[in-house]
Amino acid sequence: MMSGLKWIGATLGWSFGGPIGAIIGLALGSIGDAFASGNGGFLLGDSDTQQTRGRQRRPNYRTQQQRRAQTTSGDFEVSLLILATVVIKADGKQDQRELDYVRSQFVSMYGKDRANKAFSLFKKVSQQTIPLRQVCMQIQQMMDHASRLQLMHFLFNIAKADGMVTEDEERQIYTIAGYLGISSGDYNSIKAMFYNSSNNAYKILEITKSATNDEIKKAYRKMAKKYHPDKVEHLGEEHKKGAEDKFKQVQKAYEQLQKERGF
């Protein structure tokens, strides 16, 4: 268990505090007590435990609004696995294909050893009742916009892992998007990457079919900039692949409209 503590403690930043820290602390169980005594007094555990042990020593993530650019790979990782458990349970069951997808993505991003630790934590978190609104508020407050868009893309990937995104899963992701401060345009853009319809290319570029060719070109430049992998460079190389997937979808949508309209 100490190896698990070393792994998670070394990769977290602002997610040490607030509801995310409490969820991770509860998942790690007694490790939280050891962590509290050896890391500046930060307490990982449920809210009652936090309030009765060293209340003044616990960092307040609400005072760190200027630290968005400092979101670490670990912050993104634990935010992702917490939200993933919510989406997977949205339709009332945990489909093995979705669980396999999460594990495979962890392996591709982090390597087998770290992925095994992450997935073990994921399973423990999935046993909890997640205070979704509070978790999302912490993420919205502390995580930059590009990284939050990356979270949304990953959640749709998970929901689609069993072949389709159910209404319950889509509704849950939509709720998460609202709590994360994701605009309807951005939400529909990412959502369109996972569906087949005649106007998906327009939705991905956040325009309508009435857009002129010049407006399409302008929208493409805007979306290419928004979804460029460099936007999540601070999360580390392990998270750039997902960003590259979004970027390729924008390019594909633009090329489709170029072909359809002949410009």
Automatic annotation (TrEMBL):
Pfam families: DnaJ (PF00226), TerB (PF05099). This is Molecular chaperone DjlA. It comes from the Bacteria. Residues 46-70 are annotated as: Disordered. It comes from Lacinutrix venerupis. Gene3D superfamilies: DnaJ domain, TerB-like. PANTHER family: CO-CHAPERONE PROTEIN DJLA. SMART domains: DnaJ. InterPro entries: DjlA_DnaK_co-chaperone, DjlA_N, DnaJ_domain, J_dom_sf, TerB-like. Residues 200-262 form the J domain. SUPFAM superfamilies: Chaperone J-domain.
